[in-house]
Amino acid sequence: MPDAVYVHDAFARIADRYVLTNHVLSGGMDILWRKIVTARIKKWQPARLLDVASGTGDLALEIQDQCPQTEVIASDFCAEMLVHASNRGIAQTVVADALNLPFKDGEFDVVTVAFGLRNMADYPGGLREMNRVLKPGGRLLILDFSLPNGIMRGPYRWYLHHILPHFAGWLTGEKDAYEYLGGSIEAFPSGKGMTDLLESCGFHDTQVTPITFGVVTIYEGTR
Length: 223
Hints:
Elements lengths: L3 H11 L3 H8 L3 H16 L3 E5 L5 H9 L4 E6 L2 H9 L4 E4 L12 E7 L8 H11 E12 L7 H20 L3 H4 L1 H7 L4 H9 L3 E8 L4 E7 L1
Parallel strand pairs: 1-2, 1-4, 2-3, 4-5
Antiparallel strand pairs: 5-7, 6-7
């Protein structure tokens, strides 16, 4: 699992160009992924939602715009990232470690985490905290990278390890901040591995939805 100090410092260094870099590296697909997630959340009509590891607030902002009835709180342990979230219009931000969230038990109807669980130093610890702050029957939604199956797997892995770090380094001036990305995706639980992890951390009714040929996956669970 990633080193928390390294991850914090890396994100602090790339915060100013993080949004642009994500759009470029994904070919704009990151915008579609967040719209797909938000459409699901909109059907649930949550009163309160916590976006964990919110970063620059990309997902939280989409949810806030599309679900005006929902109180959205964005949390992240990197204050430099949350400055951008606030400047972009996120009404409520909280600097917080996902492994020790400053919220009472059962405060939220929905917890989301987009491309953030993979960067945590303790996946089960983060999931148990998300479970704790959810109401009974509350929903967790995870959006994160995964490895596609079939003929795309090999070319995508080559891109992850040989192209993406160089291109991201050129965009941000911080190549080393992206060099760990491919390895983190390779090591991250996916499919049944993730649903087993979710169930061990107190979630049930788990679901797996690969999108964009399995480059990213949506995972859901209920407390």
